[in-house]
Specification:
single chain; about 280 residues; alpha+beta; eight-stranded mixed β-sheet; four-stranded antiparallel β-sheet; 22 strands; about 15% helix
């Protein structure tokens, strides 16, 4: 039995490596192409644009309307959206298997998630209601209210940082959920809007831009966009688009220095390494 399992694992690893190598070839072509969207060209003038290498590929539920994503201790935690389908999930990274789930009442459209200390925090879209769960059991322990739309949420180790689809990020107290301050996100062209899913990575805020193939790298001190990550090649591989199957979902493994990205209704989750593009 042990020999059979070992052979099976070796076959799966060879298969995964073959897929990754093939995707790297596809990406090599995509990465050489010019940025196709004229507005993106204007938006990124004089700001570094980064591309990536695919380090690994993992399965992702293609029915998951990804709204929030975090990584901890070998597991992904994912918040999904849509009325009647919104959930909080714990997922085995290697297999994509859902090992734990909590379904939101049908009246709520789930949005971003983050984990602060031993609590998972989940936003909802237009209902002005957030949920707090025990990290292990997913037992709901409290709710909190806000006056804006809920889109993405992360934290910097001290405070929560929340987006509402505008160019403003909101800094909140993690215990009271009271508003502390705001961050006005901008580049040389002015405010950067449609800030969506957020992740705090090594002192910077990474933000998906709704209906874009780009991730903005934001200085929390000034709100200035310090760089862009161009992931159009990944969207092509995953069958993504700018309308529904959009790029959304950033998770960072702080211990292993690994960055994971995916999209709504994408069949794959990618571990990537950021590279200089221009």
């Amino acid at each position: 039995m042990m020999k059979t399992n070992l052979v099976s694992r070796m076959k799966r690893n060879k298969f995964r490596i073959a897929i990754v190598l093939s995707l790297l070839l596809v990406h090599a072509v995509a990465a050489c192409a010019d940025v196709s969207d004229k507005s993106d060209r204007q938006r990124t003038a004089d700001i570094p644009v980064y591309t990536y290498n695919i380090v690994n590929l993992y399965p992702h539920d293609p029915s998951a309307f990804t709204q929030g994503l975090i990584y901890e201790n070998g597991f992904l935690y994912e918040g999904t959206g849509l009325y009647g389908k919104s959930e909080l999930r714990k997922i085995n990274l290697e297999t994509g298997t859902i090992v734990q789930r909590h379904r939101l009442p049908d009246k709520y459209f789930g949005e971003g998630i983050t984990k602060h200390n031993d609590r998972i925090i989940q936003l909802t879209w237009k209902s002005g209601k957030g949920f707090v769960y025990e990290g292990e059991s997913f037992k709901q322990v409290r709710t909190f209210d806000y006056q804006i739309e809920g889109w993405g949420i992360t934290h910097d180790g001290r405070n929560l940082i929340m987006s509402d689809g505008t160019s403003t990020l909101y800094v909140l107290d993690p215990d009271t959920f009271k508003h502390i301050s705001t961050i006005q996100v901008h580049d040389a062209k002015g405010p950067v809007t449609r800030l969506n899913e957020l992740e705090y990575v090594n002192g910077l805020i990474y933000a998906n831009i709704w209906q874009s193939y780009r991730i903005a790298i934001i200085s929390p001190a000034t709100g200035a966009v310090a760089g862009w990550i161009d992931l159009e090649g990944l969207a092509i591989i995953a069958g993504g688009d700018r309308k529904k199957k959009v790029l959304n979902g950033i998770a960072y493994d702080h211990g292993g220095d690994r960055l994971f990205v995916t999209g709504k209704l994408w069949p794959s989750l990618f571990q990537i390494k950021i590279l200089t593009y221009q």
